[in-house]
């Protein structure tokens, strides 16, 4: 999907994301489990409306990136409510230019489904994370259940055009083919949702 059209899709959804950021929906149990170890200088890509902010330490230094200006405005409101120190950037994550090895913790939650080149983004996360740092991912993709995956393949064109998200990407293959060192994976919902603890490959 062309990037400007994708940005417009997410701009339209910013209000819904902001409401979800203040509610305890089903994904919050996964976010809480994954992000309790987030610390230090944190980079969160595709921050959306700031749903993860409630799980970061109050003294964390956070850099939050999203290509949607409206999402960023929503996330600023959430950060202010929680008195968090956040440096916001409106940028296309695939073209993100930040100093290498700058962050103790790098976070992506439910965003690899939307990038045109997710493998490029995964490799970028590895270069931005400090050698002794951690990369925390919560991502969804195609299920190992044949019935579920058949439905995902069927629905993918509609979901992509409506909300800019692919539901049938093979996330585990993308991760295993990346330049990240995968330390631990926990999967649920017919192996379609994955919590991933990783680090730069040569750390």
Textual characterization of the structure:
Strands 3-2-1-4-5-7-6 form a seven-stranded mixed β-sheet, with helices on both faces. It is globular and about 45 Å long. Helix 1 packs parallel to helix 3. The chain starts with a helix and ends with a strand. By secondary structure, it is α/β, with parallel strands linked by helices. It has one domain: Rossmann fold, CATH 3.40.50.150. The longest helix has 19 residues. It is built from six helices and seven strands.
In short:
With 203 residues, the protein is α/β, with parallel strands linked by helices.
Topology of this protein?
Layout: H1 3-21, H2 28-35, E1 41-45, E2 61-66, H3 69-81, E3 85-90, E4 103-109, H4 118-128, E5 129-140, H5 146-163, H6 171-176, E6 180-188, E7 193-200
Parallel strand pairs: 1-2, 1-4, 2-3, 4-5
Antiparallel strand pairs: 5-7, 6-7
CATH homology superfamily: Vaccinia Virus protein VP39
**Domains (count):** 1
Might you state the CATH topology name?
A: Rossmann fold
Q: Judging by the overall fold, what is the CATH architecture?
A: 3-Layer(aba) Sandwich
SSE run: HHEEHEEHEHHEE
Whole-number average pLDDT?
Answer: 93
CATH class (first level) name: Alpha Beta
Measured by DSSP, the beta-strand proportion falls in 25-35%
Tell me the Rg in angstroms. 16 Å
Number of helical segments? 6
Number of strands: 7
Strand order of the largest sheet: 3-2-1-4-5-7-6
Which structural class is indicated by helix and strand composition? alpha/beta
Query: Span from first to last CA?
Result: 34 Å
- Please tell me what the overall shape is: globular
> What percentage of residues falls in helices of 4 or more residues?
25-40%
Most strands sheet = 7 strands, mixed
